[in-house]
Amino acid sequence: MIALAALGLLLTGAGAQAGAPSRVDVAIARGVLSATLRVSGPAVLQEPGGRRRPLRLRGELRLKPRANGLRLADLSLPSGTRLIPAPGTTVRVGADPHEGALILRLDPARTVTIVEDLPIEDYLLGVLPHEMDPDWPTEALKAQAVVARSFAYANLGRFRDQGFDLTSDTRSQVFRGLAGVNENVRTAVRQTRGEVLGWHGKLLRTYFHACCGGHTENAAEVWGGDPAKTPRPLRGVRDPWCRTAPPMRWSAYFSWQDLTAALEQKANLRGVLKSLKLGRRDPAGYLRDFVARAGGRDERVDANGLRLALGAADLKSVKIKRLKRLRRGLEFWGAGSGHGVGLCQWGARRQAEHGRSYEQILSFYFPGSTLSVVER
Ligand SMILES: [Zn+2]
Q: Could you tell me which residues are beta bridge partners of residue 61?
């Protein structure tokens, strides 16, 4: 959790008028040798000293480093120049269109970084379609919007030493400008404007995952710490809603060779791997460890660590029910997808399909939390 005073934020009851929208700096290209910008209409260049001039060029413009600044097509620009699109103009960086001001920077290693400076509410439009299917029910998307907004506020300034707040990849939240934004996404962000989750007057650090497999996880089981000291909203709840979700039951096969390679990364394994068994389980049903047998002795291997070594997309979760020994490897049978902490997206979808509101969905997955409005 973040102390709100440190962020200069106040929380008030939901329904209060949100103050001036807060802004966020997101790195949309980092340390690249060059970038292509496609400018659709009028825009202005503003240099760090304040000098402004219209950008008369349109279409595909190459951005490259030069001796002590940048080159955009045939223009020389000082590092830190802002490219400010006029209303209605978009600037494509790679495949994705952007409407916010783009700060063009020369890095010390003579590469280029592009940072988009935009209101947090616009940032959320560019996050939502990539973290949840934009065609899912609006109430599920609204719950996701509140979780994504809470995450953004809780992580403002996380990369300040690198000159921006958030990355545009999974280390923060995936952000792709206006790509994939539809009316459903706009509605979800607009109808939850400024709303975040709080707990005991502080901003709650929120998480989400695809499917919990029947019980959400205590945050400390995944990220360390004492599970008994986890804030109440992040301790996990029994979830009957995702029972019919596609990721509820899965199996995955790994060869002995792949398992040995992953175990060598994660454990001090000596000798040939003879067997791998299920170890201890936490109260939410997630496996804490495996027992690997090699070189005549047993060793406990952290389950989340082994999942990452095998590939989190291949081993969907550590809620593993059984292992089946096959001739050349092991078949894992499990439930759910993701780390299991916080919002269960498939459960949220099913709740929305049953007519439950985003407030009900959020208080189900984050019990004891309050829905609050951020004000500056
Ligand atoms: Zn669930």
A: 37
